[in-house]
Amino acid sequence: MNVPFVDLKALHRPIEGELSETIARVLRNVSFVQGPEVKAFEEAFANYLGVEHCVAVNSGTAALHLTLLALGIGPGDEVITVSHTFIATSEAISAVGARPVFVDVDPVSYTMDPALVEAAITPRTKAILPVHLYGNLADMDSLMAIARRHNLVVVEDACQAHGALYKSRMAGTFGVAGCYSFYPGKNLGACGEGGAMVTNDAALAKKIRMWREHGSVKKYEHQFPGFNFRMEGIQGAVLATKLKYLDGWNDHRRALAKRYQARLAGQSIVLPVEAANTRHIYHLYVIQAEDRESLRDHLAQRGIETGLHYPVPLHLQEAYASLGYHKGDFPVTEQVTERIVSLPMYPGMSMDAADYVSDAILEWVQGRVAETTSAMR
């Protein structure tokens, strides 16, 4: 059996006709940039999340960037975030001229460790930017309490958490704003790039709508120099169509995760944990293993594709060498990034495929046990 890491063809095959008609409708009404299709998606996604405003843009990176910009964060300011994430999180901070200040992650959830945040706050701190990583939410109660004590804003990076819940509230709805990516491989993915900022703050939403469209509310009248960060009409239409299926797709991901958990529990690998009062939507199913390259090689030999998210933490990236961080500064992040392996996980993946992956992992574990036993004789 060959098991890809992700299979977008399997995702799209059951709704191919509906997507084709959706795209054909956009071709007929020629609403290629913003327009009614994007507006309809904004309204639908805001309703899905239970927020008042959704502002669609052309990427999750743009959503983060414009949100920080609209909040007035800029040169001389600091934003606390994590090193264990995709660079888009810190890139947005850098893009507005502020300084990313990294803190370590919790060893179980892989999200921002609230116990370490207050020590990182300085007079220059303006915001906390937690990342809901792999489809699992950060500890928002603790982080929001810290933000209130220090009069800081919270912007959630929910780019991997479409439909994830924390105490019955959706990811992205706790802070002043939440930012989403609709990259094709996300739980809710476009057929191209896309992103959105969601909020209950009408003034913030208005600012970001202006920033995304050249600092303008009315065509050819510009209140400030902005950007062209608009969403394409086809992507808005595709996302509105796919949104109807998101909960079902997430349920399938959770079923696959449950299958992995049942088959792999009690072995010498670390499995994901769904904390109490949360709904993990398994954008990625990430395990930890000693000698993970040996495991990846073993799985590859059996036709199983894996991923690494993320092998080099941001504080050790060349892009952030100027911040002065060093190896050893964030021990949990560094240990995790040396051990993580992302297993196949996508809607359309069969339970038989999950069993095949699990059996291959068990075979590897048993082989290592046999090698260890032999070496001790």
Note down, in words, how this protein is organized.
There is one protein chain. The protein starts with 7 loop residues before the first helix and ends with a helix. The protein has 12 helices and 14 strands. Strand 4 (125-128), helix 6 (140-150) and strand 5 form a beta-alpha-beta unit. The mean pLDDT is 97. Helix 9 (246-264) packs parallel to helix 12. The chain is an alpha/beta fold. It has helices at 8-12, 16-29, 35-49, 60-70, 88-95, 140-150, 202-212, 233-243, 246-264, 292-301, 331-339, 351-376, and strands at residues 53-57, 78-82, 99-103, 125-128, 153-157, 165-166, 169-170, 177-181, 195-199, 216-218, 221-222, 278-279, 285-288, 340-343. It is 40% helix and 14% strand. A 7-stranded mixed beta sheet has the order 1-9-8-5-4-2-3, with helices on both faces. A 3-stranded antiparallel beta sheet has the order 7-6-12, with no helix packed on it. It is globular, with a radius of gyration of 21 Å.
The structure class reads alpha/beta
Beta strand %: 5-15%
Output mean pLDDT: 97
N-to-C order of helices and strands: HHHEHEHEEHEEEEEHEEHHEEHHEH
